[in-house]
Design a protein that fits this description.
This protein is of the alpha/beta class. It has a single domain, classed as 3-Layer(aba) Sandwich (Alkaline Phosphatase, subunit A). The chain has helices spanning 34-41, 56-65, 69-72, 89-94, 131-145, 149-165, 174-187, 211-216, 231-234, 240-267, 288-291, 301-304, 329-336, 370-373, 414-425, 440-455, and strands at residues 9-15, 44-46, 49-50, 98-103, 120-122, 194-200, 274-279, 285-286, 293-294, 305-306, 308-311, 318-320, 324-325, 350-355, 376-382, 385-391, 397-403. α6 (149-165) crosses α16 (440-455) and α7 packs parallel to α10. Pfam families: Sulfatase.
């Protein structure tokens, strides 16, 4: 069939930090993603989906609002969603859907303003999830975001020490997440439409898949495997081969978790009335480009190229090869549910994305690595060429253009350079707090903190 009848239930399944090349859907050499492959076999598969930001919060904000990060203003320098932009969830609420968000991702919580449109939220914060804590969290985040750059670095380092001191839980809570989805589906009346957002964190570092998956992928000693961004600055010789194997073990485990969710849809008799949207909000660097790890400091292809496929009971499967910006899910998802007509021109002639200076992570960057990491980044894809621009804190820009098919560097044309410069210099005004002016007192305080940081080996 090619005509959508509605309303349809929607499971919006985000597999955090999942690289598309670790799925058999996109890579024939992968043999451990059977559950995801089964979904994709009859799905509309997007071969060229690109995220609008290389980390969770701004990427989700773009998907939910249809806006670029510099338009909705949620990014490293402003780490909360202020609710000033309408999300596609409002259409489901207006249509009488039950809306649920089930995630252990700390960025997708009421405290960050990302779940305000959901009726039911399970974020596994327990007693910490209450109205008072949410208000205090939003207030403290706004105060933190209003600080100058250097005070943020100092505070961020102290918060990290406090988290380690008190043993803050950084586990993915994958079993708990899937169990909560199963409970939600078991309790939900089969004749009432629902929208269920699920975020599985297993492909995201740190990696702790069950032992059976470690054994299957040949992961033994994990001492030399980087588990956090700061490990790249403290480990003498990170074992990137072992890192890739433990990542594969986590993806393998994720695939089985996805299978449990699809089994639950079938067991509750709603599979034939449910659209399953599977995607990654961004990918992950696993040692490429001279040892990159993580995602918040880079916009290389394995980070910005994302998985996306839609298993729809009314649509024939197939593959779409045109460039697609994840932000357009804001328009497509209500259509898939049967709430809106099919949007026009969903594929992009030009793909854009980027992120601000990494304010929340800079406490771990030693001085000698500062210039490579502490940069504002933009990327643009057009006519088979990817252009990347990064700007240091003094406003100096680097540009690099590559052929998307070969990966080889190509000459940057004046037209493409102007196009990527227009992201910030044209009508798209950056809403990040790092561009706000500071007064003289702030400058004096920053200078003093700068001197102390340099004494500790930080710039």
């Amino acid at each position: 069939m090619t005509e959508i009848t509605g309303p349809k239930n929607v499971v919006f399944l985000v597999l955090d930090s999942l690289r598309k090349d670790r799925l058999s859907v996109y890579n024939d050499e992968i043999e451990f993603t059977d559950s995801l492959q089964a979904l994709a076999d009859d799905a509309v598969v997007f071969d060229d989906a690109v995220t609008q930001a290389p980390w969770t919060l701004p990427s989700h904000a773009s998907m939910f609002t249809g806006l670029y990060p510099w338009e909705h203003g949620t990014t490293h320098a402003r780490s909360y969603f202020d609710g000033g932009h309408e999300t596609f969830l409002s259409e489901f609420v207006d249509a009488g859907y039950d809306t649920a968000a089930i995630t252990s991702n700390i960025w997708i919580t009421p405290h960050k303003g990302m779940t305000d449109d959901f009726e039911y939220v399970e974020n596994f914060l327990g007693t910490a999830d209450n109205t008072i804590s949410q208000r205090l969290s939003k207030l403290s985040t706004k105060l933190y975001d209003s600080l100058g750059t250097l005070p943020k670095r100092v505070i961020g380092r102290q918060l990290d020490r406090a988290f380690r001191l008190f043993g803050v839980d950084d586990s993915c809570k994958s079993e708990e997440t899937v169990a909560a989805v199963e409970s939600y589906l078991d309790a939900h009346p089969a004749d009432e439409p629902f929208f269920c957002y699920v975020n599985l964190m297993e492909p995201h570092e740190p990696y702790h898949p069950p032992a059976e998956y470690l054994d299957k992928h040949g992961v033994g000693d994990t001492a030399d495997i980087p588990q956090r961004q700061k490990d790249m600055f403290t480990m003498d010789a990170p074992d990137f081969d072992a890192l890739r194997r433990i990542y594969d073990a986590s993806v393998d485990y994720t695939d089985d978790l996805v299978g449990r969710i699809t089994d639950s849809l079938a067991a509750n008799g709603v599979a034939d009335d449910t659209v399953v949207v599977v995607l990654s909000d961004h990918g992950q660097a696993l040692g490429e480009d001279d040892g990159l790890f993580g995602h918040q400091f880079t916009t290389i292809d394995p980070v910005i190229d994302t998985a996306l496929f839609v298993a729809h009971p009314d649509l024939d499967g197939g593959r779409r090869t045109e460039p697609f910006e994840l932000r357009r899910l804001h328009d497509l998802v209500p259509y898939y549910a049967g709430l809106e007509p099919k949007p026009e021109a969903i594929f992009a002639d030009t793909v854009r994305g980027g992120c601000q200076f990494p304010e929340n992570f800079t406490g771990y960057i030693p001085g000698e690595g500062w210039d490579d990491y502490y940069r504002k980044r933009r990327y643009l894809i057009r006519d088979g060429t990817t252009v990347r621009k990064s700007v240091d804190e003094n406003g100096n820009a680097r540009y690099r253009a590559v052929d998307r098919e070969t990966g080889e560097a190509v000459a940057l044309t004046d037209e493409l350079r102007a196009a990527i410069d227009d992201i910030d210099d044209g009508t798209a005004v950056d809403a990040g707090a790092d561009d706000q002016p500071t007064d003289a007192a702030d400058d004096d305080a920053d200078e003093e903190i700068q001197q102390r940081l340099e004494a500790l080996g930080y710039r």
